[in-house]
Amino acid sequence: MRESILTIPVSEIFELKCGCPVCRLRDTLEQRTIEYIMGAAMMEPDVRIETNKQGFCKTHFEQMRACKNRLSLALMLQTHLQNIQKNIFDRKSIFEGKTAKQKKVSAVNNDCFVCNKIDWGMSRILVTLCEMYVQQREFRELFEEQEMLCLPHYDLLVAVSAEQMDKKYQKQFIDACGRLTKKYLDELEKDVSHYCKMYDYRNTGANADWGNSKDSIERAIKFLTTR
What we know:
Elements lengths: L6 H9 L5 H17 L7 H10 L3 H8 L4 H20 L10 H10 L3 H23 L1 H8 L6 H14 L2 H31 L18 H10 L2
Helix pairs in contact: 2-7, 3-5, 7-8, 7-9, 9-10, 10-11
């Protein structure tokens, strides 16, 4: 399988061996989408139509708010709010049911322009990942050398492989995913347990050995949620 515009980003992400590679893929797509929407795309009519309708989730609002260009965010908020006014609360019809507005509001609350772009991109990248695993021995070795897979992305990869991967390699791939997840889970559980034990009065003092446990709470949350 020759390198292409699809395989190169996957190879580059997997060359790093720190944390969950699928989280890194997601984070890369997320960062690029945020930069895109906060840049020149903010003034593109087609993009604004989508952002006006879909809005953003709390996570991505916070990431956008952290960017320097607050005016871009304000302009998108302005037209998004106007869209809600016009298409949900201002439109009245004798044929509109009692819960029509609530359903429209619910749709907005559960939608996000950035999430949708990430989901679209990830669905295609994961197909490429499956193809690379089947066709490239080097990539299979690189996959095995990863530090870990977080729990949600273990679930995602196993599900995708069942639909997209040649059956000849499915068991090998699923077993590899399981090893990466279980190995890290065992280490993580030990670190969290050690953290808890360090609060025993017998383990206090200047020479208390916390080992690798001090950030175990944060690592456990990331393992369980991808965030």
